[in-house]
Amino acid sequence: MSIEFTATVLGSARIGPNRELKKAVESYWAGTLDAAALESVARTLRENTWRELVAAGLDSVPVNTFSYYDHVLDTAVMLGALPERVQGIGSELDRYFAAARGNETVAPLEMTKWFDTNYHYLVPEISPATTFSLHPEKVLAELEEARALDVPARPVVVGPVTFLLLSKAVGGSAPLLDRLDEILPLYAELLTTLADAGAEWVQIDEPALVADRTQSEIDCAKRAYDFLSAVSTRPAILLASYFGDLGAALPVLASTGIEGLSIDLTVPGTVEHVAVVPALASKHIVAGVVDGRNIWRTDLDRALATLASLMGSAGTLAVSSSCSLLHVPYTLDGETDIVDPLRSWLAFGAEKVAEVTVLARALRDGTESVSSELDQARAALESRRTDPRLHDAAIRARLEAGVSVDRTPAEERRRAQAVRLDLPSLPTTTIGSYPQTTQIRLARAALRTGQIDETEYVSRMQSEIADVVALQEKIGLDVLVHGEPERNDMVQYFAEQLSGFAATSNGWVQSYGSRCVRPPILYGDVSRPKPMTVNWSEYAQSLTGKPVKGMLTGPVTILAWSFVRDDRPLAESAAQIALAIRDETIDLEEAGIRIVQVDEPALRELLPLRSKDTAAYLEWAVRSFKISTSGVSDDTQIHTHLCYSEFGEIIDAIVDLDADVTSIEAARSHMEVLDDLNSVGFDLGVGPGVYDIHSPRVPSVDEITESLRAALKAVPAERLWVNPDCGLKTRGAAEVERSLRNMVQAAAALR
Ligand code: GLN
Ligand code: ZN
Known about the structure:
- The structure is a single chain.
- By secondary structure, this protein is α/β, with parallel strands linked by helices.
- It folds into two domains: 20-386, TIM Barrel (Alpha-Beta Barrel), CATH 3.20.20.210; 415-489 and 534-750, TIM Barrel, CATH 3.20.20.210.
- The protein is 42% helix and 12% strand.
- The protein contains 26 helices and 20 strands.
- Strands 1-5-7-8-9-10-11 form a seven-stranded parallel sheet. A five-stranded parallel sheet has the order 16-17-18-19-20. It has a two-stranded antiparallel ribbon with strand order 2-3.
- The relative contact order is 0.08.
- The model has no long low-confidence stretch (mean pLDDT 96).
- Zinc ion (ZN) binds at residues 431, 601, 641, 643, 726-727.
């Protein structure tokens, strides 16, 4: 029934090679672009993407991977599952954006991380009142658009099991998989519709099946694919798995009537698992040998060996990226600052597509047909393997000699710090950043383009710092910060100064909606050529008698928001970064800084998808934090900041960090975090955020007092700090001042 294809990718980026979609949707939101013009930008982007994929030689091209905001939200629309509160909103497009971003009257859907990537999806809300219905217009339109251009189009949709597992049950507690039978008929109808519209294959994404799943969840998956494969008129089904190993779900899915299965072969162990599932011998295996979420050039020889080892176990074989190319930048073209040899080690989206086609050609016509490509890949790999920047003997020797991470017991540290800091009870502070004003951004841009020189830039930043210090003194905060005006981003700022990192000029990747990030590339061993933050902190401290907190980003967060080495365990890179941060804390201390905060907002983000891997992760993550923070004397106070209020698996790790003070997001969860911390015996300083910084609303003194009273039920006053939930960089100056005044007043009244 199906025509097997040989070369594909599981999805492509959609924000535009020059962020055209970002600019267009933001103009639409601002009211300066109309819906028709937005639609035309979108159509052009889709067309260009498909044409490039076809021209590169793919014989099956994913469609419906375009999205105005998010593909999970698109799925909710397709299933008629937008929340009740947006139903009344005028046009379909505005309803969609209201669900995504909210408006004056309706709250948006929650947003959360797409598995262990840095992409964030919107969490569909499903209530007992939700009645599902099929709305296939978007996928049909994109299919027709592509077919009209002679594109061998393969529509992609999020699968029913993943959709329900990722959604949130509201107003009812039954597991959402209980609703599977309501949506399966809609998927069945969709399949028939797509077949009628000419689709030969459909890709159904079920990444949720690579995480830990219960037997009953796996049974649901079986039921779903038995049912869908029994639909009489339908395209061939490619069930897509990525980001991990299907484990126990693999033989179960293979036993259903689906025609194809994609396997993420960049994950250790998956090749071996495929070999022991006999049912795969009748399936089309889409082999994800080209890493779709990191930026390294593929080791083509190794990929060919993997493909060869699959030959015996698969019915037929296609070459593919391991996941959608949503997670990597478009192309290396235009990255003029990235030069050889580093450049030769990299492959962004377009280069990955080329690798897929080279591998497919090798399978079809033999390796001789691609010998020059293989030679090039080998040479690049060899130069990477032998580059001295990847083998810094000094750093390795330091780590091998062993770094002591012991600190004096917390109680003794507390006494030493109390003497040196002399703070009132319920000390007030902030998390680090103050509003990033246009002035600040302009100064940074002017420095970049050479309009102003370094001296002028430093003096402008110093005047920002002076303003922020004066403001904090005026408000009456106890522990001050310098405000981070010099930081474009809390990770990029450090990556730009550490050896072993490279930056891209146009390497944008969608983070959520129209928001993009440009992750640094960690390619080498990490060292710190010179102090990174000391001058700024020292300057701020020179302006006030109150303690100014030094402000650093921790190793886990730096790794989580970068493209990382794939030739070394992450733990090793973490230890190297940690050593650089450790040196920075010591330099800050020597410069007279009495408190240093090491932020780890991404500590939870790198948690592995499978719980069997959790302990090992947490061990190196905690150790890297301790390497970073254990080099200072007892009377230097270490703070950390964590950006979430649900701990789950990391609660014990927070105790193990042994930071003197931990500030943590808590306002939205009503201080529940404190009980969680108590339950594991946490007895250090803690600053649960007393107000939510995600909204411009100014919290009243009463409200903050309420929060603090709630906190005091769980934590004795000696351990309690008073601070907002997170940094203030996205807020306006006026609201920040008023909020902090109220916060200081609430703390003073309680003392
Ligand atoms: N110190 C950083 C700031 O205040 C922390 C940001 C974060 O937690 N993401 O901006
Ligand atoms: Zn935060």
